[in-house]
Design brief:
By secondary structure, the chain is α+β, with helices and mostly antiparallel strands. The protein has one domain. It has helices spanning 28-40, 69-74, 117-121, 125-130, 140-148, 156-174, 188-198, 212-237; strands at residues 4-6, 23-27, 60-64, 80-82, 91-93, 104-105, 108-109, 149-152. The strands form three sheets. A four-stranded antiparallel β-sheet has the order 1-3-5-4. The chain has a two-stranded parallel ribbon with strand order 2-8. It has a two-stranded antiparallel sheet with strand order 6-7. A hairpin with an 8-residue loop joins strand 4 (80-82) and strand 5 (91-93). Helix 6 (156-174) packs across helix 7. The two termini are 22 Å apart. It binds iron/sulfur cluster (2 copies). One iron/sulfur cluster binds at residues 56, 62, 101, 103-104, 109, 111, 115, 119.
């Protein structure tokens, strides 16, 4: 779900997010189903942002894919730059000195109906679900909203699933060395997404007695299985 390319340094996400003022994040189970669907394909998410513009003002480079034809048709060429490490037809939209997206004017997106899939997929509730922050000081506006989100739960099982996601995120953050080659996500958005994908590992009773290496291996396996199911879904839709 990463909004784009995050130019901030990897951060220590281990500080748990505390809650203060509350904003209704919706039913957790419904949200999770929507989020997992968005990981599997370009369905986007529906975030009750209200007046928040946190992710449009947080120094993100916005990834514009070749498939974002409407976006490419309306964004001035001088606001599109090459996307490092990606093919030539992938672009980035930059941000101004104060961290605001170059397409945000007077607090509103000037290309809202043509915004790229990157923006349609962004949902800062993933950080609330994983109980981690979105980043450092340049992500303060998002962190504020993450603190405020409060999910509701239709069942005890949904609460258990939420706990499993939090456990997964905490494990990934604190046990990088347990992963093969030390390769575990570093960026907060990547940690949150992985935790959501693999939370089932932490619903298994045996997870309580497993070593960090065993848990890391189970996470890798679960992540591969999720991605394989996504590919299968994609193939079926073509
Ligand atoms: S930070 Fe979250 S609530 Fe704020 S605009 Fe972005 S997605 Fe919406
Ligand atoms: S393109 Fe629009 S929605 Fe996306 S970050 Fe920029 S202002 Fe926000």
């Amino acid at each position: 779900m990463a909004l784009g390319q995050d130019n901030s340094a990897p951060m220590n996400t281990s500080a748990a997010v505390s809650t203060s003022a509350k904003v209704e994040a919706g039913d957790f189970g419904t949200w999770l189903a929507q989020m997992l669907a968005s990981f599997r394909g370009p369905v986007g998410t529906d975030v009750p942002c209200g007046s928040c513009r946190g992710c449009c003002t947080s120094s993100y480079f916005i990834h514009v894919r070749p498939s974002d034809r409407k976006t490419l048709g309306v964004v001035p060429k001088n606001l599109l730059s090459p996307a490092p490490g990606l093919p030539q037809d992938h672009k980035l939209i930059g941000f101004t000195a104060n961290g605001a997206c170059a397409l945000l004017k007077n607090g509103d997106c000037t290309i809202y109906s043509s915004r790229p899939q990157t923006c349609r997929d962004y949902d800062c509730r993933v950080f609330a679900a994983a109980a981690i922050q979105a980043g450092g000081v340049d992500k303060a506006a998002i962190n504020q909203r993450v603190q405020e989100w409060q999910f509701s739960y239709a069942s005890g099982q949904d609460q258990q699933i939420h706990q499993a996601i939090k456990k997964a995120a905490a494990f990934i953050t604190r046990n990088r060395a347990a992963f093969p080659g030390g390769r575990a996500p570093v960026m907060p958005s990547d940690i949150a997404v992985l935790a959501i994908k693999v939370h089932g590992v932490f619903l298994q009773p045996e997870s309580n007695g497993q070593t960090p290496a065993e848990l890391a291996a189970a996470i890798v396996q679960a992540s591969r299985a999720f991605d394989a199911s996504r590919l299968t879904d994609t193939t079926e839709k073509q």
